[in-house]
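Our preliminary data section would be incomplete without showing what the modeling component actually yields. Below, a chain of 148 amino acids is followed by its predicted structure, encoded as tokens that our downstream tools consume directly.
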Amino acid sequence: MEVILKQDIPTLGDRDEIVTVKPGYGRNYLIPKGLAIIATPSAKKMLAENLKQKAHKEEKIKIQALETIKKLENKVYKVGAKTSSTGKIFGSVSSIQLAEVINSKGFEFDRKQIHIEGEPIKEVGTYKAKIKLHKEVQIEIEFEVVSE
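Predicted structure:
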């Protein structure tokens, strides 16, 4: 029995994938739980059209991400933090503070898109972070932690 998966199922396949399963598993588990639909010819045509539209949208998003990279690269962002006289930060600098600084420059990033490399930042200095704009597009930026 062929079914089209509506969700990612780790042992079976990914979303919008056509897989062959035993009839009992398909009728008694996957279809009633809303995890799959029967792969009829009309459902396969709809899936093909949806995948085509999805690929077109993904391409637009990727192009926008590449344009954003051009605006972001070769810039150093300054993140202010309260420090002691020795340069140690009270607390640490996280992706939340970095996202606020970058967003104040006219961009819109979620803190979950930003990954700061290495240990938690607890001293003044220059560090690197990766921003994931698309599943295939990411950029590494430099930022400087300065004392306020």
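The chain has two domains: 2-62, 69-147. The CA atoms of residues 76 and 141 lie 7 Å apart. Preliminary results of this kind motivate Aim 1 of the renewal.
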